[in-house]
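Ops channel
N.P.: pipeline sanity check, posting one input/output pair.
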């Protein structure tokens, strides 16, 4: 049975959604790169670039509650077509806009629509991939999105010279047509809870309900928390990576692009390996080991002065992060009840986006007084320290639990003794 499970084919729903992720992420990479280049050429400054990243992250936090409720109470076939056509319309409007403020506002609307669609996609994939297929489905989604974001920025820079911002945004609009198309072709039962009715749902849904779901199971809560810390640390290093490559090593822009590519390639490879590794295995220990690997790689980058070593360590850290991402998603899918997976996915995305915003704000402060290598050392140390603290807490909790159980049994035994 164990050997046969990896050979089982993924449902068509999953491969279709993965293809949609690939196309839409590629379009997003095109658009973000083109917008950044356009803002740079117009001398908007760092405030405009920060506004772009804020427009990408904030809507997922603000709309986590409605997104979770929609994912838990409505089928993907009902939600995705109107959302997809709305995404296409917003992209088309962006291609006509010239005002920086209007472009940022429309990007925020676009991100808000994707924040609603993402939990629907996640829940549909989890429900279509039971048992040993779950990790492979999560790996396929991770590989598709990483590949899209790997190709998108490079293609966006080339297209920007050829067809300018308006053309790039129209291409992005075309890529979003994949969302309503996949929605129409999903089975009617895909992604629905029990049935869509006007009756009161059995479970509460939304952002707070999603947080409660993630916190109820301690192993899941630990994986989610260390993932938030990992996201924060990696986003901080992303800000200073260009300074490390260009200033500390004196390398060219091409080398910087290759370092970024090494990270993405590592993520794709790590996700591919994890997809088959976790089919019928526990995710707890590998998740912890991959976090250690990321932290150790960041510390090594900080202390070793070698450009080839930077490529190797970046690729290894990316691979470890790819494995951890699949482990985290598989843990969520195995732990959370199907009827509540939408709220859990939306709350999880809100936590990760909050960590991203906090990292971007902190990076500006940290880089004002710290060298790039120091930032890498701080990030790696934070990751390892957080993991060690959680390990100590888990050991303490596991020691207390048997003691509490023994005390409870003793009290129950005493209460059962005759009193005469």
């Amino acid at each position: 049975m164990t050997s046969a499970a990896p050979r089982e084919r993924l449902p068509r729903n999953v491969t279709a959604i993965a293809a949609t992720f690939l196309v839409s992420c590629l379009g997003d990479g095109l658009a973000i790169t083109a917008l950044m280049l356009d803002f740079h050429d117009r001398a908007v400054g760092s405030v405009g670039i920060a506004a772009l990243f804020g427009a990408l992250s904030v809507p997922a936090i603000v709309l986590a509650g409605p997104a979770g409720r929609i994912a838990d109470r409505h089928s993907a076939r009902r939600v995705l077509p109107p959302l997809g056509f709305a995404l296409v319309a917003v992209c088309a409007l962006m291609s006509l806009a010239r005002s920086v403020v209007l472009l940022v506002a429309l990007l925020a609307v676009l991100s808000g629509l994707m924040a609603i669609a993402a939990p629907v996609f996640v829940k549909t994939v989890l429900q279509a991939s039971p048992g040993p297929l779950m990790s492979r489905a999560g790996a396929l989604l991770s590989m598709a999105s990483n590949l899209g974001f790997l190709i998108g920025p490079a293609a966006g820079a080339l297209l920007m010279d050829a067809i300018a911002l308006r053309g790039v945004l129209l291409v992005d609009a075309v890529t979003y047509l994949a969302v309503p198309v996949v929605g129409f072709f999903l089975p009617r039962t895909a992604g629905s809870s029990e049935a869509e009715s006007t009756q009161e749902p059995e479970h509460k849904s939304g952002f707070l309900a999603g947080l409660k779901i993630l916190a109820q199971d301690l192993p899941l809560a630990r994986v989610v928390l260390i993932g938030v810390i990992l996201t924060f640390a990696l986003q901080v290093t992303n800000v200073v990576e260009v300074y490390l490559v260009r200033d500390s090593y004196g390398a060219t822009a091409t080398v910087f692009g290759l370092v970024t590519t090494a990270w993405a390639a590592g993520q794709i490879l790590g996700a591919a390996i994890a997809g088959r590794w976790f089919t019928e295995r526990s995710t707890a220990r590998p998740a912890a080991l991959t976090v250690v690997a990321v932290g150790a790689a960041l510390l090594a980058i900080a202390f070793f002065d070698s450009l080839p070593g930077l490529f190797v360590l970046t690729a290894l850290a990316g691979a470890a992060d790819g494995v951890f991402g699949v482990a985290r998603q598989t843990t969520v899918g195995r732990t959370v009840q199907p009827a509540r997976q939408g709220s859990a996915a939306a709350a999880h995305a809100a936590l990760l986006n909050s960590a991203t915003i906090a990292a971007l704000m902190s990076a500006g402060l940290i880089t004002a007084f710290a060298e790039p290598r120091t930032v890498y050392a701080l990030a790696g140390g934070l990751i390892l320290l957080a993991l060690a603290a959680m390990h100590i807490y888990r050991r303490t909790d596991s020691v207390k639990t048997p003691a509490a159980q023994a005390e409870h049994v003793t009290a129950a035994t005493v209460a059962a003794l005759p009193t005469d």
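N.P.: looks fine end to end. The two ends are 59 Å apart (CA to CA).
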